[in-house]
Amino acid sequence: MPDNGGIDRLRESGLDANDAQRIYRHMLLARAISGKNWLLTRQGRVLFSMPCDGQEAADVASAYALDTQTDFIVPYARSLGAMLVKGMTSQEVMLNMFGKAADPNSGGRQMPQHWGHKKLGIISMGSSVGTTIPRASGVALASKLRGENDVTMVYFGEGSASEGDFHEGLAFAGVHRLPVVFLCNNNGWATSVPVELQSVERQISKRAQGYGFPGVTVDGLDPLAVYQAVRTAVNRARSGEGPTLVETNTIRMMPHSSSDDHLRYRTQEDLDAERELDPLPRFRDLLISASLMDKESDQSLREAVDQEVEEAISYADAAPSPDTATALDGVYAP
Ligand SMILES: Cc1ncc(C[n+]2csc(CCOP(=O)(O)OP(=O)(O)O)c2C)c(N)n1
């Protein structure tokens, strides 16, 4: 029997069955790539990775609210799900992870997961957290000055919201009513520093009031809720009403990065409890209860996704490395 609750929630969100299935597939793909990236670092085949496990719903559903053909994304390293929705392929992700010459992100020059894809409207990021925020306001200003109807969305964590760049980027966007959405992924941690040691007020979205535009907090484990909130923000930006700060409350199921051991500062009990909140089974159950999927089709989808990732790894592993003679290209003026 279909569960009308699931169908009603879907209808309310403005998404149809096809959208929901696509979102779920992208969430599965992000999880599968993230898991493989972790193993590849453990095998010494890839230099570094930053798992996105626990924030797939927030990344995928938020990017789904954009016009993926024309809008811009300014990502951070954990925004893998958004990269996939924007059109980056598994092969391109793996070319980046292996630092290969054909990597569209940086030709293997930046660290893994330092995204940037000109053709897809993904603005290149740097390692310094928060610096992307004023840059996103700049991209949105350019769209406004050119009279183009594009929206820019910038992703960052709540730790990055402690940087001065956050204030500068939001203040500027507020004053100039720029078409930008600030997407703060609040997973409660900035590496080993909990949010309560960063900010007395844990709800980051409240800060938007100081910049003169709306701030909303949404359950980042629920893709339908994320889509609705971000869709409202995107529509607002596109219609000239200015920015929105959307905070997605998520979880960080894995260590900060492949260079981190989270058991140095978190307990196993805490991690086990968080794992129970995993957004993937929760969304799968909603799709099954709404008769949009069954256990067998879920299993086949998982197998197809795993195969896609395995093939991307083989492809990228065999691809040529950058020519060492080009190592200094773009670093010094000729
Ligand atoms: C300016 C700057 N300071 C410190 C770092 C080291 N660093 C990298 S990621 C990170 C934590 C970021 O936390 P948050 O913004 O909450 O994102 P999360 O990693 O939790 O998704 C830190 C401190 C950095 N890259 N740049």
Q: How widely separated are the two ends?
A: 69 Å
Number of strands: 7
Which CATH first-tier class would you pick? Alpha Beta
Secondary structure: helix percent:
40-55%
Number of domains: 1
What strand line-up does the widest sheet have?
A: 1-2-3-7-6
H/E element sequence:
HHHEHHHEHEEEHEHEHHH
CATH architecture descriptor? 3-Layer(aba) Sandwich
Bound molecules: thiamine diphosphate
Mean pLDDT: 96
- Radius of gyration, whole Å: 19 Å
User: Main sheet?
Assistant: 5 strands, parallel
Secondary structure category: alpha/beta
CATH H-level name... which superfamily? Thiamin diphosphate (ThDP)-binding fold, Pyr/PP domains
**Can you tell me the overall shape?**
globular
What this model shows, in words?
The chain is an alpha/beta fold. It has a single domain, classed as Thiamin diphosphate (ThDP)-binding fold, Pyr/PP domains (Rossmann fold, 3-Layer(aba) Sandwich). It is built from 12 helices and 7 strands. The chain has helices spanning 4-13, 17-42, 56-64, 80-86, 90-97, 132-145, 164-175, 208-211, 223-238, 268-275, 279-289, 295-318; strands at 72-74, 152-157, 180-186, 189-190, 193-194, 215-219, 244-249. Helix 2 (17-42) packs across helix 4, helix 2 (17-42) runs antiparallel to helix 11 and helix 6 (132-145) runs parallel beside helix 7. It is globular and about 50 Å long. The model has no long low-confidence stretch (mean pLDDT 96).
